[in-house]
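Before the break, one more example. Copy the sequence into your notebook; we will annotate it together after we see the structure.
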Amino acid sequence: MDEHLVALEKRMQQLQEALRQALTQHDDAQVNALGKELTRIRHAWDVLCGLSDVPDTPPEVQPEARPEPVLAAAEPNQGVPVRDQVHQALALLTVPASPKLLSHVHQAFFSTPLNTARLTTLRRDEERSFRSASYGRAYYICPALTFDLLSPARGLLALSTWPLEQRLVGPLTQRVHFLTSALRLADAAEHLAGDAGMPQPVQQLLLHYSRNIHGDTPRGPLDLDALRRTAAAELEIHADDDADTRAEAAQRAREQLGDVEQIFGNILRDTARLRRTS
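Here is what the structure looks like once it is written out:
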């Protein structure tokens, strides 16, 4: 099945569970917000399945809650909260990313940069929210976790709705993530490119990826097919070893950490114990 469909279906399941919890808690505001997002996700699923056409302006889509930037991102959305901007960029990349990369991606694909100065406070607020009402939100912005100590990886943000394996970082993961994000952004750029061609900020971002992957500045126009072929070929070299490392770390995390630590990282007093048992 297409990976976009799988992601949308998982998101619908998560929203349905969160909606049930909100109904149980009689949280009308949360029920309303989750219901609207679930409607948007179902619409996106219908579009991908060919059951619905993409309208020029999707019904009831508010700029502060666009759930799946993998499909499009063309109009400026100045009123979008930083938390939702981070979600948009991460959902497009599908891998943990630094604030700098998130800002570049959001600028290129969503027409506005992120205010990266607010991200440290945002992550602390997300953890406080989870500790006060676990799973009260449909998703949380959280740190990626190191494979050895299961502690927060410095400067990398992720989404709590991703599987543990997807939020862990091993010795090869940085390169795997770079190659994975190159493939994702190339696909998204091709989707955005119309008669007017690829937007300049998107092209500049992908040229950066191309230079890093090919080792020099490509001559002539950006070749998305060549970028994808090269990225996929290198990814095949590293992917299995990296996946094995992260799968082992994820299993250890599930055995040794509680829900909060599995999302926001191991607390310091557990570091020595985790070293001994790894």
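Residues 52-77, 269-276 have pLDDT under 50 and may be disordered. The two ends are 35 Å apart (CA to CA). Try to locate both features in your own notes.
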